């Protein structure tokens, strides 16, 4: 029996929990079942009470107080503790049928998606551990207001890409909180962010106004010792680096974004359709009995 899930990821405040809540409401309205897991050991309040909450196992507060760690160290400690107690997940998920969409609400610490190997191990366990075998989609949210600062947008896009390459499961990128930029960004301009292209940095209005007020860039001092050059990356070098990164994203066509407005039922439904496609949810529902197919063949 297959299980289906979506892991909702992204930086702090990107709107993950709000999206999880909207998704659960949408599923329920469409007579589908959700199993909501909170894996953020610091999360306090929820619109829908989680069916499973990491805080039952360990909370960030416990980790910080008992082990004397800060918030980031505490989070890593909680995830390491989770990895040592994976039967807690297996026991809760084992009996779920294929009707359920398992929704996993992740913490927002960016380290988790970039350079710490815990998440790939967790995803491998969920998708490939034999007993669970969840068909999982990764959904990465980036706040749409980032499009106003293009360098920030590309930095966010890099973290989405990092998560995508690290996890090796079907991946959906989402620009969340679209309602916040509806009136600021023209539709035509927005299209360029949905499939980011490098020219976005060249005609960045923020950059143009900076050049007008500060004047043209000073070229970097080529005679400076290598250490100093590396540390003082500013002006032209910084822009060249940004452009190279944006070029990389563009030339591999690795990132596309879907738009999300949680206040719009169709928008939430649209993201759900993409998730369903990625995990082939509908194909697994009401499978034909072998006998049905046989009867059909005989009638021919
Ligand atoms: N305008 C607007 N605000 C939103 C939207 N989604 C979330 N927010 C607000 O953004 C803030 C953060 O939302 P959360 O859903 O808690 O974000 P999160 O990614 O779960 O945050 P962390 O748990 O800190 O990682 C809250 O104040 C939400 O009300 C949206 O689509 N539009």
Under CATH at level 1, the class of the largest domain stands as: Alpha Beta
Helix percentage: 40-55%
Q: Biggest β-sheet, characterized?
A: 7 strands, parallel
**Structural class assignment:** alpha/beta
The CATH superfamily of the largest domain appears as: P-loop containing nucleotide triphosphate hydrolases
- The appropriate CATH architecture of the largest domain is 3-Layer(aba) Sandwich
- Globally, the shape reads globular
Please give the oligomerization state of what you see: single chain
User: How far is the N terminus from the C terminus?
Assistant: 31 Å
Give the cofactors and ligands.
guanosine-5'-triphosphate
What's the structural domain tally? 2
The CATH topology annotation of the largest domain reads as Rossmann fold
Q: Count of DSSP helices?
A: 15
SSE pattern: EHEEHHHEHHEHEHHHHHEHHH
Which segments are poorly predicted (pLDDT under 50) over 5 or more consecutive residues? none
- Strand count: 7
Region (Disordered): 205-232
Protein name: GPN-loop GTPase 3
GO biological process, one term: mitotic sister chromatid cohesion
Subunit structure: Binds to RNA polymerase II (RNAPII).
Tell me about this structure.
- Belongs to the GPN-loop GTPase family.
- Keywords: GTP-binding, Hydrolase, Nucleotide-binding.
- GO terms for molecular function: GTP binding; GTPase activity.
- The protein has 300 residues and is α/β, with parallel strands linked by helices.
- The protein folds into two domains: 3-196 and 255-287, Rossmann fold; 198-252, no CATH class.
- It contains 15 helices and seven strands.
- The structure holds guanosine-5'-triphosphate.
- Guanosine-5'-triphosphate binds next to helix 1.
